[in-house]
Structures are given as structure tokens and as C-alpha cells.
From TrEMBL:
Residues 57-171 form the AAA+ ATPase domain. GO terms for molecular function: ABC-type transporter activity; ATP binding; ATP hydrolysis activity. SUPFAM superfamilies: P-loop containing nucleoside triphosphate hydrolases. It holds the Pfam family ABC2_membrane. It is found in: Membrane. Keywords: ATP-binding, Membrane, Nucleotide-binding, Transmembrane, Transmembrane helix, Transport. It is a multi-pass membrane protein. This is ABC transporter G family member 15. It comes from the Eukaryota.
Length: 611
């Protein structure tokens, strides 16, 4: 390293010392590599190659490089959000430990570690400066650790960065104090002109996208004359990049980074308990989530409002088809069919909300990774925010159908009918939420959801009477754990008990509702219809609890499943020559630590992934 580099931290706290003093969150990465295995015989692509670096409280780390250099991939790798088909090796340590940090499942948190992907993109220079200056204030005054990618900052913005991670084709061109970067380039033979923006100079040195154009213009007399003055014109960008990468690997700058990582790893950092003092209360999480979810549901026309319109139109159609069915013998089948349609097909229509559930789960997954709130708060807030819409949908359609068909008169009977519909719709909503948490896309969820609801309808007792269902599996336990059988039994009891119907032949004895339910439908009337309704709401609670455990198990099992998938993929691809070549790290100097084998998958999941 050049003269004066050894005293770079003189008069100021070193990164490790600053970390020890502030007790914030530190992040280090060693020999970090990410590769994308090619499919269909295509070669394996190297995304990141043996990167080293650190981030400590009170400092901003700027990840810079040309397009496609690996900036976003590095951010995703550090934050535990790499795509499933990308394989990662190396160590990513938080506070010196390979573990996952739980910032507390809270919303409106004050996170100690921030990852930002090009926060100044699309802003003018003044706005970009204001954004980075605000981040710098957060870092210094709040003791926060900030890692941000940036494409091409102005000189004023570049001066605000503390540390620079310069990438090119997934390799480290430079990591260290941003103020020392021009000195490193000068030592390598590519000094930054006095009036040139340092970031522009760095990118010009490492961006090899236009080498073909430069080669074609080499015949220009003017360019040959300028090459005598500008060393960048004497070499291709690829040659410059390779010289910079090779120089950095054997430089004291790289050694300082490794020493700093080693010092940070020896300091015991802040644990989760120290962060919980700035968390929002659970009640505040619930209020905030409920309000936000309700506003989103109201503004999205397709979420509930369109479905309410469809339900009302369907209720009108149903009412006109079964208008005033009366108490004749044929009315028995008409009432049963109408009740079966309401309990089965009208609840089945709740599957129309599945696209919105999928989008909501994407938002939930992202915010859970950021540690904004807990699973329980999300599930309860979703239920509370959807309740007004589901009640409106159920009571509006029930009012139209009930009075047009002229089911059994009396408000208590109508209230049961509406609550029965509301419970069935709510159960299906909960079921679709479970499915949305299990499937990766809308199409698979729609197919799976339709299949499950179809099974529920088959075992409800409408298409085949419950006593006639095969006792093994279909009757016990399926018919008891699906809402359809309870909803249909409750609907029949609510409408038929206490009524009398004309006999099949004139002059015969009238048929009572009790006789129809027990003999024609094979159902028991030994318990009240309200127990049937209660069972629907018990199933609703059970489905919501299942949804909770599905989300928790999914979060806990995801790292292990990914490790298993990666090991399986590695074994399968080791037969490819291109993949074996990618396992050999880029030629390292003797100063480098031994690379971690791909099969070990050390640090596969970032400690920042939430649970």
C-alpha cells in the first residue's frame, strides 16, 4: 500500500473500534461466491467470485459497478434473498456469528442494518445528494449500518460514502475506504484526473461492455494522440479490469479488509434483546396492519367490491329461479337444491379472491424478511379487515335470496341463514390463504384450491347423502373436517324443521320437516342447528391456526429445504465440466484463505433472513 495508508484510521475510529463502541450490527462476508447453474447443457454462470467485505455501524458502504457487475446479487446474498436456483458459498456473519438475527416481528421498527438497492435511481443530483445525506445522518447519529448499491453517483454524493465496494463481472476491484480508492487506482497505473468525478473514472476503468467499439475506433489518429495522454486508451477495458483485480488481491488494501473482518469477528455484538426496546407494541402492529389492509381492500375494486356485485347478481338469479317455492311436494327438492347451492356453490365463488391473496402473500413475505411485524398480527388483521366486506357480501346476497325464495319466515331464521353463508365464505377464504402460502404462483393455487373445494362439496351430503358415504376416509374424517356438511345440515334444519309439505299423492298424510330430514336425508336432529353453525366457526378458527403454523413452519424449514435442494443440485451438476470449472475459485494469491467447498454450503442463508 502506498505511503500513509497505514495511518488511514489515525485520529478516527477504525471500523472494528467503531463497532465495539456503538454496539450496533456488523456484517462481514468472506470468500462469498454465487453461481447460476446452467440448464439444458448451458454453462454455469459466475455471479459473485470470492468477495470479502464488511459493514459496521456509523458508516455507509456503497456497492458500485457497471450494469451486470453483481451489485444487486451481492445485496440479495447478504440479505438472504437470492433466487432459489442460485448457489452460494462462503461466510456471511452478523455480529461475528453465522446466525439469523430477529429484529423482532414489528412494524415501524428502527432497524440497525439497512440494505438499499440504488436508492438514488431516477433522482436528479440535488435529490440524490439529499437522500444520501439523510442516510449518512441516520448512520452517524443513529449508529446504523447501511449497505447501499449505487450506479453512478455525482462527486458530491460519492464524497458522502465511507466505504466503497467496487465490482466488475462479480469480482472485487476494490473494497475499503472510499477516500483511498483514487489512490489505489493511481498506484495501479490509472490515476483519476483532477477534474473528473471519481465514480465516473472507476466505472470507465471496469466497464468492458464497449470494448468492441473501442477496438473499431483504434484507427482514429485523434484517439492515438489522446492515448499518449490518457493511459486508459492504451489498454482495453478488459485488460484494465484484470490488472485492477489482480493488483487488489495482492495489495495491502485487501489485507486490511481481512484484518478488519478478523477484528470484528472477535467482538461480541448486540443481540436481539438489545433491539427490542425500540419496537412497536403488538396492539399497534395490529391496528396499523388492519387499517392498511382495509384501505387496500377497499381501493382494489377486484378484491371485494366486484365480488359483492357478483354475489348480489347471483342472489337475484337464484331468487328468480326459486321464487316463492311454497310448501308443495316438489318444494322439498327445490328448497334442498337452493340451500345446497347457497352452502356449496356460493361459497365456492370465494375462490375469486385468490389472485389478491397471492399478491398479499408476496408483500407479507417481503415485510417479514424485513422484520416489520409478526405472523399472528398479520393473520388477525387480515381477518378483521376482511370482515366488513364478507358480512356485506353475505348479508346482501342472503337478504335477496331469502325473501325472494320465501324460506321459513322469521328474523332469527334469516339471521341463521346469513351467518351460515358468512361462515362458509370465511372458511373458504381461510382455506385459500393457506393454499396461497403453499404454492409458488396463481395458476397452481387456483387448480389446487378448486380441487380441494370440489372434494368439500362432494362430501357435504348434497350429491350423496352423508349416511351413504363410504365410512373409511370420506365420512370419517373428511365429512367432519370440511365446512360443507355442517353448513348444509344447518341450512336444512333452519328451513325445514317445523314446516309441513304436501304429500306425494293427494289425500295422503302431510310430510313434516322432521320426517324429511331424518328419513329422506338421513340426518340427525338430536342436536341444534346452532351447533352446526358453531362447528363452522370452529373450523374457521382451526383453518386460521393452520395458516399460522403453515407460515411459521415454512419460514423455519425454508433454509433446510434450500440446503437439501442445493446439495441435490450440486451432485447432479458435478458431472458437467462447466460446473466443475466454476467450483474452482478465481486464481487467488497466497494471502487468500482456502476457499470453502461448494458442497459445504457454508453461509448459504444470510443471517439477516427473518423468522
Amino acid at each position: 500500500m502506498g505511503e500513509g495508508n497505514g495511518t488511514a484510521w489515525a485520529g478516527a475510529l477504525s471500523p472494528a473500534a467503531r463497532y465495539a463502541e456503538t454496539g450496533g450490527a456488523s456484517l462481514t462476508w468472506e470468500n462469498l461466491t454465487a453461481v447460476l447453474p446452467g440448464s439444458g447443457g448451458r454453462p454455469t454462470k459466475k455471479l459473485l467470485q470470492g468477495l470479502y467485505g464488511y459493514a459496521v455501524p456509523g458508516r455507509i458502504v456503497a456497492i458500485m459497478g457497471p450494469s451486470g457487475s453483481g451489485k444487486s446479487t451481492l445485496l440479495d446474498s447478504l440479505s438472504g434473498r437470492l433466487a432459489r436456483n442460485v448457489l452460494q458459498t462462503g461466510k456471511v456473519l452478523l455480529n461475528g456469528k453465522k446466525r439469523r438475527l430477529d429484529f423482532g416481528a414489528v412494524i415501524l421498527t428502527r432497524p440497525r442494518l439497512l440494505f438499499l438497492d440504488e436508492p438514488t435511481s431516477g433522482l436528479d443530483s440535488a435529490s440524490a445528494f439529499s437522500v444520501i445525506e439523510t442516510l449518512r445522518t441516520l448512520a452517524i447519529d443513529g449508529g446504523r449500518t447501511i449497505v447501499s448499491s449505487v450506479h453512478q453517483p455525482s462527486s458530491e454524493v460519492f464524497a458522502l460514502f465511507d466505504d466503497l465496494c467496487l465490482l466488475s463481472s462479480g469480482e472485487s476491484v476494490y473494497f475499503g475506504d472510499a477516500k483511498l480508492a483514487p489512490q489505489f487506482f493511481a498506484e495501479t497505473g490509472f490515476p483519476c484526473p483532477s477534474r473528473r468525478n471519481p465514480s465516473d473514472h472507476f466505472l470507465r476503468c471496469v466497464n468492458s461492455d464497449f470494448d468492441d467499439v473501442a477496438t473499431a475506433l483504434k484507427g482514429s489518429m485523434k484517439l492515438r494522440a489522446e492515448a499518449d495522454l490518457d493511459p486508459l486508451l492504451k489498454y482495453s477495458t478488459t485488460e484494465i479490469r484484470e490488472r485492477l483485480v489482480d493488483k487488489y488481491r495482492i495489495s495491502d488494501y485487501a489485507m486490511m479488509v481481512r484484518n478488519t473482518i478478523h477484528e470484528i469477528s472477535k467482538i461480541e455484538g448486540v443481540m436481539e434483546e438489545a433491539v427490542k426496546g425500540s419496537q412497536a407494541t403488538w396492539c399497534k402492529q395490529l391496528r396499523t396492519l388492519t387499517k392498511r389492509s382495509y384501505i387496500n381492500m377497499y381501493r382494489d375494486f377486484g378484491y371485494y367490491r366486484l365480488r359483492i356485485i357478483i354475489y348480489v347478481l347471483m342472489a337475484i338469479c337464484l331468487g328468480t329461479i326459486y321464487y316463492d317455492v311454497g310448501n308443495g311436494y316438489t318444494a322439498i327438492q327445490a328448497r334442498a337444491s337452493c340451500g345446497g347451492f347457497v352452502s356449496g356453490f356460493m361459497t365456492f365463488m370465494s375462490i375469486g379472491g385468490f389472485p389478491s391473496f397471492i399478491e398479499e402473500m408476496k408483500v407479507f413475505s417481503l415485510e417479514r424478511q424485513n422484520g416489520h411485524y409478526g405472523v399472528a398480527a398479520y393473520i388477525i388483521s387480515n381477518f378483521l379487515s376482511s370482515m366488513p366486506f364478507l358480512l356485506t357480501m353475505s348479508w346482501a346476497s342472503a337478504s335477496i335470496t331469502y325473501w325472494m325464495v320465501k324460506f321459513r319466515p322469521g328474523f332469527s331464521y334469516f339471521a341463521f341463514f346469513a351467518l351460515n353463508l358468512y361462515g362458509g365464505v370465511s372458511v373458504i377464504e381461510s382455506l385459500m390463504m393457506i393454499i396461497s402460502a403453499l404454492v409458488p404462483n396463481f395458476l397452481m393455487g387456483l387448480i389446487l384450491g378448486a380441487g380441494v373445494i370440489g372434494i368439500m362439496m362432494l362430501t357435504s351430503g348434497f350429491f350423496r347423502l352423508l349416511p351413504e358415504l363410504p365410512k373409511i376416509f370420506w365420512k370419517y374424517p373428511v365429512s367432519y373436517i370440511v365446512y360443507g356438511s355442517w353448513g348444509l345440515k344447518g341450512a336444512y334444519k333452519n328451513d325445514l324443521l317445523g314446516l309441513e309439505f304436501e304429500p306425494m299423492t293427494p289425500g295422503g298424510e302431510k310430510l313434516t320437516g322432521e320426517f324429511i330430514i331424518t328419513n329422506m336425508m338421513g340426518l340427525s336432529i338430536s342436536y341444534s342447528k346452532w351447533l352446526d353453525l358453531a362447528m363452522i366457526f370452529i373450523l374457521l378458527l382451526a383453518y386460521r391456526i393452520t395458516f399460522f403454523f403453515v407460515l411459521k413452519v415454512k419460514e423455519a424449514a425454508a433454509p433446510y429445504l434450500r440446503v437439501a435442494y442445493t446439495r441435490f443440485t450440486v451432485k447432479r451438476l458435478e458431472r458437467r465440466a462447466s460446473f466443475r470449472e466454476s467450483l474452482a475459485m478465481t486464481s487467488l494469491s497466497k494471502r487468500h484463505n482456502a476457499p470453502h467447498p461448494m458442497a459445504m454450503q457454508e453461509g448459504l442463508n444470510s443471517p439477516m433472513q427473518q423468522y
